[in-house]
Design a protein that fits this description.
Blueprint: H1 3-24, H2 35-65, H3 69-93, H4 99-117, H5 124-145, H6 155-160
Helix pairs in contact: 2-3, 2-4, 2-5, 3-4, 4-5
Length: about 170
């Protein structure tokens, strides 16, 4: 290619590129992982959150009943491992998840952290209820993201999944 053609090509790209690129480039599409990747990441996160809730429940029960030190240390190490698993799986959800799921997952992880901070206090039951609510919100966000719940325009799916009326 001669230099004159190369410079003309560059000039046309610099002039036409922004017009064509902005017209055809999708601006609101955010690429997320495949549906199966997202489902696996969401399941790992939900498992880690449930393990962390169970571990905090054990440690709170031991603190309330003032059990032996060796048993408490074992459960504290399990609690620490469960917290690490939550952080690790949350980091695995961030690259593949959608924005609503990531925000619900971060809220659920914060609720688990609050649950761990209230161990042995009177606020544990309210923190536990809050953690359960945030996990339910996360599950709803995951179902919506994975399209397990029909949208308003999916009339056939809504008709199939309808709840039957009670017969009198």
């Amino acid at each position: 290619m001669d230099p004159m053609t190369m410079s003309a090509t560059r000039m046309s790209r610099s002039v036409l590129g922004p017009m064509v690129g902005s017209h055809f480039a999708p601006t609101t599409v955010i690429k997320v992982g495949l549906r199966e990747e997202r489902r696996e990441a969401y399941m790992r996160l939900l498992d880690a959150l449930m393990d962390a809730m169970t571990a905090t429940g054990f440690v709170n029960g031991l603190a309330a009943h003032r059990m032996k030190e060796s048993r408490t240390e074992q459960h504290l190490s399990e609690l620490l491992q469960a917290g690490n698993d939550v952080v690790r799986t949350l980091a695995g959800v961030r690259p593949v998840g959608s924005v609503p799921v990531i925000s619900a997952a971060e809220t659920a992880a914060e609720a688990i952290a609050e649950l761990g901070a209230t161990l042995g206090t009177n606020g544990y039951t309210s923190a536990s209820a809050n953690a359960a609510k945030t996990q339910e919100a996360l599950i709803d966000a995951c179902r919506t993201d994975l399209s397990y719940r029909g949208r308003w325009w999916q009339l056939r799916r809504r008709w199939i999944n309808r709840t039957p009326r009670a017969t009198t």
